[in-house]
Amino acid sequence: MDGEEPGDGGGRDTAADDEALLARMRAAPVLAGPLPRFAPEDAPNTPGPLFARWLDRALAEGVPEPHVVTLSTASRDGVPSARVLMLRGVDTADCACLFASDAESPKGRDLAANPRAALTWYWPAHGRQIRMTGTVGTLGEDAARRDYLGRSAASRAAGFTGRTSLPLSGPGEYDRARRAAQDLIAAEPGRVPDGHTLYRLRAQEAEFFQADPARFHLRVRYTRSGDGWTRTLLWP
Ligand SMILES: Cc1cc2nc3c(=O)[nH]c(=O)nc-3n(C[C@H](O)[C@H](O)[C@H](O)COP(=O)(O)O)c2cc1C
Fold first, then answer.
1. Ligand 1 atom closest to Cα of 83?
2. Which of 6, 71, 94, 114 has the lowest tally of Cβ within 10 angstroms?
3. Contact, 203 vs 116, CB < 8 A?
4. Where residue 13 falls among pLDDT bands split at 50, 70, 90?
């Protein structure tokens, strides 16, 4: 899928265009199925194994990028923001998820100020949404190092361009930073960027939504309570 969308650069800002866009959205199929079956009464007593089972099935059946997840954070003042990132590991026994980022990025600063966050997955081909909320901690330098050095050279080089989310003056500046990063990892393949951090969200709540083409969706929420979990069916 190459090239720019037709009409890029303006010319589609009228109310009629918006109406037409809405009509096309309405015509687009959603939850068409066939979708997998989910029997909440057979769900395990803890959410970790259910998450692992759903993720494993998504991977096995070729659901596109099921390990890409939306991370929502909020600043100390409660200003929310969300972005997608890659899941870097799961701890099924404790229902915790790992992800990696730059501690100096906006999300890293949000998490340092306010460690409460949410993860959301949506796998359209399975009609499944999973939501977890919890508290985020960081793993140590060794774990961050292993995570980083296990990546492809391209991904390691990208991590050294740094300055996530700061304004970029133009393609020239980016190109120079990319080249410098490629030279750096070629010269020092064991080097890890200072801010590279492996985060761990320990779920306090985990919710599983199984869509139904007939719209009789099923939702199950697990809430941590002491050493165990309570499991509740929710109205969809
Ligand atoms: C498919 C995909 C995977 C991504 N994976 C990561 C990731 O693992 N870690 C990360 O920090 N950013 C990742 N990003 C970039 C983030 O979405 C985001 O643009 C960037 O981290 C800046 O976010 P922030 O300004 O909220 O900190 C990914 C983006 C896409 C589209």
1. 17
2. 6
3. no
4. confident
